[in-house]
Amino acid sequence: MNNKPQTVSVTIMGKEYKIVCESGEQDNLIKSASDLDTQMCKMRDSGKVSGPERIAVMAALNLSHELQTLKKQSPIALNQSWKDCFTSMMIKIENALEKD
């Protein structure tokens, strides 16, 4: 089994980002990036939010709100590994946006 981190290329709002992720997590990263791209493009195209940084912040707030809503609806707390994964993904997204 290959446990080496893998580099994955994702495109968000027309920009390509290369992100390193754990082996076996590529599909999750690609799906997450696709969901983020969809949400950010929808915001940009609505004309209500302008500028990539503001769009990214609003998308992050929306995703965080969705997560909080899910936490409240579920009687079982999210397990720590899921929280760690979410935190790791947010850090990677923030780092990728800072490189612009």
Summarize this structure briefly.
This protein is α+β, with helices and mostly antiparallel strands. The protein is built from 3 helices and 2 strands. It is globular, with a radius of gyration of 15 Å.
Query: By CATH's scheme, which homologous superfamily applies?
Result: Cell division protein ZapA protomer, N-terminal domain
Write down how many β-strands occur, each being a DSSP E stretch of 2 or more residues. 2
Level of helix content? 55-70%
Widest beta sheet: strand line-up = 1-2
CATH architecture: 2-Layer Sandwich
Domains, number: 1
The CATH C-level class name: Alpha Beta
Task: Please tell me what the overall shape is.
Answer: globular
Figure out the total of helices.
3
Please, could you describe this protein's structure?
This protein is of the alpha+beta class and 100 residues long. The protein has a single domain (6-98), classed as 2-Layer Sandwich (Double Stranded RNA Binding Domain). It has helices at residues 26-46, 52-73, 80-98; strands at residues 6-12, 15-21. The chain has a two-stranded antiparallel ribbon with strand order 1-2. The longest helix has 22 residues, at 52-73. It is globular.
